[in-house]
Each structure stands twice: as C-alpha cells, then as structure tokens.
Design goal:
The complex is a heterodimer.
Chain A: H1 7-25, H2 27-30, H3 36-55, H4 61-88, H5 94-97
Chain B: H1 3-24, H2 32-55, H3 61-107, E1 111-115, E2 121-124, H4 126-132, H5 136-139, H6 151-162, E3 171-177, E4 183-194, E5 200-209, H7 211-232, E6 237-242, E7 247-250, H8 252-257, H9 277-293, E8 297-305, E9 311-322, E10 328-337, H10 339-372, H11 374-401, H12 409-448, E11 454-456, H13 458-468, H14 470-476, E12 479-482, E13 488-490, H15 492-508, E14 517-525, E15 528-535, H16 542-545, H17 566-576, E16 580-586, E17 590-598
Parallel strand pairs in B: 12-14
Antiparallel strand pairs in B: 1-2, 1-5, 3-4, 4-5, 6-7, 6-10, 8-9, 9-10, 11-13, 14-15, 15-17, 16-17
Helix pairs in contact in B: 1-2, 2-3, 10-12, 11-12, 13-15, 15-17
The chains are: A mainly alpha, B alpha+beta.
C-alpha cells in the first residue's frame, strides 16, 4: 500500500487546528456573535473535512474523499445559513432604524 | 458528472449565496472591518469550491496549484475572520462600557464635573446640569469658579488643588449660583486626575446638593434653640443623665439650685459633686432603679438641699431615656419645688389636729353641759311643782280659815294670780330648757357612738322605716311610694335614723289642702348612691332653705312640735359616713331631700 501525504493538506489542517484552539479560547466572547453556534459548527465541519483530506492518503481514499467534499459543502451551507440569519433577516440595524 | 463534483458545486453556490446575502444586508450587523474580512473568506471559499469543481473537468497542474494555494488560504482566512470578529466584539464591548459609564455618570445621584489644568469644565454630568439649570454647552469650557457665589475663593481652591496643595479626600462646602439666580449649597469632593507620567492633568469633582441637609440642620438648630429656651425658662428643674448618673443636659433652674453659674458647669458631674453623701446616694439609687428596671419614677416627693443649704421639698419624675434601638441610655428628670405646698400641708395638718382637739373638747363641754345642767334643772322643775303645790295649799287654807276681808287685796292677787303665773313661766321655761338639753345630749352622744359600716339593703330599711311610721302616715292621710333602691354602705341604725327623721319631717310639713304623696327613689352616680325623699308638702321658703340643717332651727315653731334637731342629726350622721344631705324646695309645691352615701 502506498501512503501519499500532501504538504498543503497538512498545512491546512495545522492552521485549522490553530484556529480551533483560537476559537475554543475565545468561545465566551464569540457567543456574543449572533447565531454564533451555526458559524462555529460550520468551521468544525470544515475542520473535519481537512482532517479527512489528510486521512484519505492513508486509507479509504474514495470514501474519505467523498466525505471530505461533503464536509466542505455542508460547511459552506452552514456559513450561508449564518449569513442569512445575520444579514438576510431579523430586525434592522440601529442605523437603518434611524 | 462525478458525484463528488456535486458537493463542490454546492460549496461554490452556497458561498456565492452567502456573499450575495452579506452584500445585500451589509448594514444590518457587525463591524465594517469584520464584514470585509468575512467577505474575503466567502470569496476564497467560493473560489475553492469552484476550483475543486473545475478540477473534475480540466485536470491541469496550474489549476491544481491554484486550488492548493486557495485551499491553504481558507483556514488562514478563518483565523483572520475570527480575529476580526473578536476585535469587533471587543470594540462593541468597549462602546457598551463607555455608554454604561456615561449613563452612570449622567444618572449618578451626585453631580460630577471634570476640569482641565486651567480650571475649565471639560465634562459635566446631567445631574449637575439639572442641579444648576444650565445646558452642557453653557458650562463646558468655562472656568468652574464662574458658577460659584464666592468666585475668588473658588479660583484659589482650584489653583491649590491643581498645585497638589490640598490633600486628597478633602471635602469642601461651597455655594453655587444656579442659572435662575438662586444659590445652591453643595458639598464638593475632589479627586486629582493624572496622566501616564503621573502629572496632574485635571480635577474630577463630585457635587452633592446639601440644600435639604442645610434645611434640616437649620430646622434642628431652631428646634434645639426652642427646646433650650423652653427648658431654661421653666421654673422646674429639668435634667438628663447618662447611665452613670452624670449630667448630660441641665437647665438654668438646676444650675442655680446646685450653685453653678451655667448649666454647662454641671455636665459630666454627678449628684455626689453637689449634695451631701447620703442624699446623693439616695438620688443615685433612684436613678439606677429607673435605668435598670426601665420603669419611670413618677412624682416622688423627696427632700433636697439647695446651694445655700436651705432644706427644700421636690416632686421628682424620672423616666428612662432610650436610643433609636430602644436601649436605655440614661434618664430624663423633672423636679418641681413643692416646698410651699409641703409647708401648707404641714400647717393644714397641724390645724386639723388642733381642730380635732377642739372638737373633742367642744363635744366634751357639750356633753358635760347638757348632762350636768339637767340636775339643777330637775331641781328647779321639782321645786317649782313643790312651790306650786304649796301655793295651792296656802290659797286653800286662806280660803277656809281666814275671812276674805282679813286678807289684803294685794296678797290675794299675789297668791291667786302672780305666783301661779310666775311658777307657770318658770316651769314652761324649765321644760323647754330640759327639751333643749335632751336634744344636745342626744347630739353629743351621737358624736361619740361608734359607726359600724356595712352594706345596707335600702329597700328593706325604707320599708321598715315606713312600717314603723305607719300610724303617722295614716294620721296624715298620706301615701308613701318606695321605688327600687340601690344598696349603700353605712351604719344600719344611724342611716335608719336619717331616713326616719327625713320622713318624719315630710309627714309633719305636708300641705293640708291636698293629699300627701311621698316618693322615695334613688340613682347611682360616681360611686355614690343618691336617695331622694320627695313630698308634695308645704315646701320651704327660700330664706329658710340654708338654715334648715342648723341646730334648733324650726320652720313653724308655734304650729309644729319638735326641737329643731332632726335635720341637724341627719347632717351630723352623714358627715360621719362621708355622705351628704341637701334639699331642694319650692314653697307651696313640695320638697326634695337628697341623701348621698357611698355605693356598694
């Protein structure tokens, strides 16, 4: 069996883990963001995608690749939902109200 | 199309949609910087999705390289996004804190202002603006002393503060001028502001409106002055002592009594510093009793010695003094000089004793007089009879033995007319004197008889009295009506005599022109049973009404029998029973005799 590791994927994962730590450390403050859970879950799903893209070099390449892309898609959808919640609906900002 | 490519196109489309939504609702939320960074993330995600999707169709190295670069930028951009969001949140928090601070600053219960190093107002809160009636524009930038009544003093104080000459925490009392011209007393608390280098950069002052406090202080001072004037001008001794019996407050009367010039000289001292040991110890014991028991000492009459050494009598009231929690912290005392009253009481007592003695002597004299005078009177009466009989014998002998011609006319007249007439006068007078002496004797014996007080059934007693006088009632053709009578306290035989005498009088003085009606009724009032014997008799003329209880006073001495003692005895008996008797009468209509006796 040939194991194939791509440096860029490892770099993505490492940066992703760094962001994860950053997020976990700032969680109380991030909660002040509207619908913050959706955005953070979107990031977590994306991070899972980055983990899968590294893992697919070792085993189950096709399945993990499939799941990886699915994670990207799900993450994008969650981010889009967050955008809709924050910018697309809800009460107008104070400026608009004025 | 490859199934995985579907996910990539979804990634692309979702990112695109998110980007459109963001741009459309750009103004709705978040900080502009955070939104810009987030826009970048969406662009990169969109490009990443697009490049992944294109890869399935055109597999080129260039495209592969672009996808790798964008793929690496995505997590990095997430970091930027999170950082930007956190920065935005921090800014928002700061703004909130500032707004909160401004709110607190404006709505603080005290006024605040900040001055720069020139003494100009740089910041002022709403409370202070409301206090003074200015707008912020009218105050900002102006020297603070412009708003003070005493500008020079205020300017000097600000200069001293800015020079650091005034220690921190010091509070000043100032009078500010309001926009409407009125003055406002305030308390100013000062805090120096310093820059990073530690140099004084200004002053922050807290202004407290003390108008109410000033008013309360003035009111309190007025009340104190009033109270002080009041207690100092009271003739009574007024003092307040602490729990150790030391004077805390004393009025001028106390000071003068104790030989001090002013009340202040007494403060902190005790009775032991002014009175003899024994007297002071007695006062101290009284004080401690009041303080420890919490029970007031009311109108205690006690001796005292004034500064000149004169003995006095005082009526003293001491009440415990409590603090706001109810704990006894001393006592308040009021002492009234009752020396004059005490002397008068002593005089009165002496007089009463003398009077009692004199009364005893008088009764004794009365008894002796009435008793001993009867003996010679009996002789007079006896020998008058004897003389009368002898005179009759002489007359008879002369009639039988001596011819009428031999007896001179003068002798005949003397024997037949003058001597019997003189003897008649002597015997009538002696009889009258005997009657008077009997009355006096009865009266004096009444004064010596013991009074046996017991509850009396007045219904039974009056029924008995009426029954015993049934003959007189029938003779007079009268009716006696007795209503229900309350009981009273008294000596049965003496009270019986009271009502017998009154009833006898009522029957004696009935009006012959109409049937006599005597009504006896009663009521209880203020612990006294008041009985009334009412008749429809002849009544008593007004000029006699005040004399009917006098000894030997008779209304119709020629027509009615009696000694004039009945009502005197009634009054005498009732005096000994702590009772009363009085009469109301109308001539020609009848009389009412009231008897008041202690109720059961």
């Amino acid at each position: 069996m040939i194991y194939e590791i791509f440096e860029n994927e490892v770099v993505m994962l490492l940066i992703g883990v760094g962001v994860l730590i950053f997020i976990l450390g700032s969680r109380p403050r991030l909660k002040r963001l509207p619908a913050s859970k959706i955005l953070i879950v979107g990031f977590y799903v994306l991070l899972v995608g980055w983990v899968l893209t590294v893992l697919e070099g070792f085993f189950c390449e096709r399945l993990l690749d499939y799941l990886e892309h699915m994670c990207y898609a799900v993450s994008s959808v969650l981010v889009a939902i967050w955008c809709w919640k924050v910018f697309g609906s809800g009460p107008p900002s104070r400026k608009e109200a004025l | 199309m490859h199934p995985v490519a579907v996910f990539d196109i979804i990634t692309f489309l979702a990112s695109l949609a998110a980007l459109i939504v963001l741009l459309k609702g750009w103004k709705r939320a978040l900080e502009p910087k955070a939104k810009l960074v987030f826009t970048g993330l969406l662009v990169f995600t969109m490009c990443y999705g697009f490049s992944l999707f294109v890869e399935w169709t055109w597999q080129t190295k260039v495209l592969d390289r672009i996808e790798d670069i964008i793929g690496a930028l995505v997590p990095m951009w997430w970091a930027f996004v999170i950082y930007a969001f956190l920065a935005g949140i921090a800014e928002e928090e700061l703004r909130e804190r500032e707004a909160r601070f401004q709110e607190l600053f404006d709505e603080a219960p005290v006024g605040y202002h900040e001055l720069d190093t020139e003494g100009r107002i740089m910041r002022v809160n709403r409370t202070e603006l409301d206090m003074l009636g200015y707008t912020a524009e009218e105050m900002l930038g102006k020297p603070v002393w412009e708003f003070s009544v005493d500008k020079e003093k205020s300017r000097d104080t600000v200069a001293d503060k800015l020079a650091g000459d005034i220690p921190p925490g010091r509070v000043f009392e100032r009078t500010l001028r309001r926009k409407d011209g009125n003055t406002l007393p305030v308390l100013v608390g000062v805090r120096l502001l310093r820059d990073k280098a530690g140099r004084i950069s200004g002053i922050r002052s807290a202004i407290q409106n003390i108008t109410e406090r000033k008013r309360a202080e003035e009111s309190l001072a007025e009340e104190r002055s009033l109270l002080r004037t009041l207690i100092d001008n009271m003739p009574d001794n007024i003092f307040v002592k602490d729990i150790e019996s030391r004077f805390v407050v004393a009025n001028i009367a106390v000071a003068h009594f104790m030989g001090a010039t002013t009340p202040d000289e007494l403060l902190g001292k005790t009775d032991f510093d002014f009175y003899p040991q024994e007297l002071a110890a007695r006062y101290y014991a009284d004080d401690q009793k009041v303080i420890q028991s919490g029970q007031p000492l009311v109108s205690r009459e006690e001796p005292a010695v004034d500064a000149a050494g004169s003995r006095k009598w005082y009526s003293t009231t001491k009440v415990p003094l409590r603090d706001s929690r109810g704990k006894i912290v001393g006592l308040v005392g009021i002492s009234r000089d009752i020396t004059a009253r005490k002397l008068a009481e002593e005089d009165s007592e002496r007089l009463m004793q003398t009077l009692a003695l004199k009364n005893e002597e008088l009764e004794s004299v009365l008894y002796v007089t009435s008793h001993d005078l009867r003996a010679p009177l009996v002789n007079i009466q006896g020998f008058s009879h004897e003389l009368s009989r002898s005179c009759d014998l002489i007359c008879s002998a002369l009639r039988d033995k001596v011819p009428a011609a031999d007896v001179g006319e003068k002798v005949r007249t003397a024997l037949n007319k003058d001597v019997p007439e003189a003897l008649g006068f002597i015997m009538t007078s002696a009889k009258r004197m005997d009657s008077l002496l009997s009355g006096l004797l009865r009266l004096s014996r009444l004064g010596q008889a013991a009074v046996n007080i017991e509850p009396l059934d007045m219904n039974a007693m009056l029924t008995d009295v009426t029954k015993s006088m049934e003959y007189q009632v029938k003779e007079a053709g009268a009716t006696v009506d007795i209503e229900s009578l309350p009981p009273c306290l008294g000596d049965a035989s003496q009270i019986n005599q009271v009502f017998s005498n009154i009833l006898d009088n009522a029957l004696k003085y009935l009006d012959e022109s109409r049937p006599g009606v005597i009504r006896i009724y009663a009521k209880v009032e203020d612990g006294q049973s008041i009985y009334c014997v009412e008749d429809n008799g002849a009544g008593i003329a007004p000029e006699h009404q005040s004399k009917i209880f006098e000894i030997f006073h008779r209304l119709e001495p020629d027509k009615k029998s009696g000694e004039g003692l009945g009502l005197t005895i009634v009054r005498h008996i009732l005096d000994r029973h702590n009772g009363k008797v009085w009469a109301e009468s109308e001539l020609g209509k009848g009389s009412k005799f009231f008897v008041s006796l202690p109720s059961v």
